[in-house]
Amino acid sequence: MTAATPDARAFRDALGLFPTGVAVIATEVDGHVHAMTANAVSSLSLEPMLVLFCPAKKARFAALLDAAERFSISFLRAAQEALSTYFAGGWREPEPPPFRFVRAGGTPRLEGALAALVGAKHRIHDSGDHWLVVVEVHHIHRGVEPHRPLVFYRGKYARVDRLTGAKGPDLLASADEPAQMFYHD
To answer: Apex CA 42: angle with CA 58 and CA 84, to 5°?
Structure first.
């Protein structure tokens, strides 16, 4: 007996249980700044410093990937929900929310973000209905306190309470330690 293949809705619902940060990816092509909202963003490597983001192939931003050489990935603050909606194409007001791009490492990044990574296109991989874009980070910007990120969870915006929680392990310090392996018969 084989298990049925999950449908797309079940897949999205399961992934929605994994909270993610919200970022605005920006690039400059032919003198124009282009940006999109993304939550498919992840660190990839420390040496070299690589990060990835995954735009849908149908997204207008995907058409710029061949021409774009540099990208910024600006992590949004809890107070920047309107910018997330705007750069995702869901803004319905006549005027956009206030925002400004500033230069960082030769690339536009969103001013006022929680933090931003700026770097050069390293590689692009074909990955189903999305592209997997790998960026080598050359510049890091960390915004001023308070550091309260905008979070996406179960299809809605959420916020993190910094006063709760326990300190997690320092994964960088333990990178050379042997991995713990667990086996189950």
So the answer is: 55
CATH superfamily for 8-159 is Electron Transport, Fmn-binding Protein; Chain A (2.30.110.10)
CA triple 147-159-102, angle to 5 deg: 45
Give the CA count within 13 Å in the CB-facing half-sphere of 9: 0
- Measured from the Cβ of residue 38, the count of other Cβ atoms closer than 10 Å reads 24
Pairing type for strands 50-53 and 41-45 reads antiparallel
- Compute the distance between CA of residue 138 and CA of residue 67 in angstroms, rounded to an integer: 19
Judge if the upstream peptide bond of residue 178 is cis by omega within 30 degrees of 0: no
pTM, 2 dp: 0.85
CB 55 within 8 A of CB 25: yes
Sequence spans of domains, the chain: 8-159
- Please check the confidence at residue 182 and state whether its pLDDT lies above 90: no
Print burial letters for 58-85: b (CB count within 10 Å at least 16), e (below 16). Answer: ebebbebbeebebbbbbbbbbebeebbb
Cis ω for the linkage preceding 146 (within 30 of 0): yes
pLDDT tens-place string over residues 93-136: 999 999 999 998 889 999 999 999 999 999 999 999 999 999 99
